[in-house]
Write a structure and sequence with these properties.
Blueprint: H1 6-9, H2 13-27, H3 31-49, H4 58-67, H5 72-92, H6 99-121, H7 124-127, H8 133-221
Length: about 230
């Protein structure tokens, strides 16, 4: 098993999810929060055993179940749920619980889950399962690894954001330079017409000068033509 409550997932995913949250809190050192979550787990389990009492308090449901006890397994289940409620209430009201006390709450949740699943499935193999503290240590390592991975992913995301920002900056610079080059090219294209206009003026002046020169020269050579 990867964790102590794997067997519960196949029977009730809702209870499984709740107790795994509690177990993760224990592995992270949040013992009071763990016990509060286990209490929620116990109350959900009690409501599932007596579905017609969902509007009743946890105490009312447990007392009702206590009056209906027929077998030793049922007695053990109710005793575990009473213990879970009691410790969960202490944690919820600010009484600091130790790691050993929180561990005992988890173990009681495990025993309650065994009886609950056996009642649902009649699978005798479930009764043979034992709570393994080493799985909590493995789970704790897994949580730490996930935190490291999350930090790594966050760092990589930050790097990507910086790279993206730098890339945008580079693109902006290229656009700016392209606009500058385009403006320079437009200005260059506008200048030649001015030069052509100047050449045209020079040609006209030269032509006028040539005509005048020819007329003066003709008058000097052929004065009788102007008499």
């Amino acid at each position: 098993m990867k964790n102590n409550f794997d067997f519960l997932e196949e029977v009730d995913k809702d209870l499984y999810s709740t107790i795994i949250d509690a177990q993760n809190l224990f592995c992270s050192g949040y013992f009071n929060q763990c016990c509060v979550n286990v209490r929620i787990f116990g109350e959900k389990m009690a409501q599932k055993i007596l579905p017609n009492q969902t509007n009743s308090t946890f105490d009312d449901i447990l007392n009702c179940l206590k009056d209906r006890i027929k077998t030793q397994k049922e007695r053990e289940l109710i005793e575990d749920l009473f213990f879970i409620k009691q410790q969960g209430n202490k944690a919820a009201h600010g009484e600091s619980l130790s790691s050993l006390e929180a561990l005992e709450v988890l173990k009681r949740a495990f025993e309650a889950s065994i009886n609950y699943c056996y009642h649902k499935t009649k699978n005798e193999k479930i009764e043979q399962l034992l709570f393994d503290t080493n799985l909590l240590i493995s789970n704790q390592k897994s949580i730490k690894e996930k935190i490291v991975e999350a930090k790594k992913d966050n760092k990589e995301n930050q790097i990507k954001k910086v790279e993206k920002k730098e890339k945008k900056k580079e693109i902006k610079e290229k656009i700016k330079q392209a606009r500058k080059n385009l403006k320079q090219n437009i200005n260059k294209e506008k200048k030649p017409p001015k030069k052509q206009n100047n050449n045209l003026k020079l040609r006209i002046i030269f032509l006028i000068f040539a005509i005048i020169s020819i007329l003066l020269l003709s008058r000097m050579i052929f004065p009788f033509l102007f008499l």
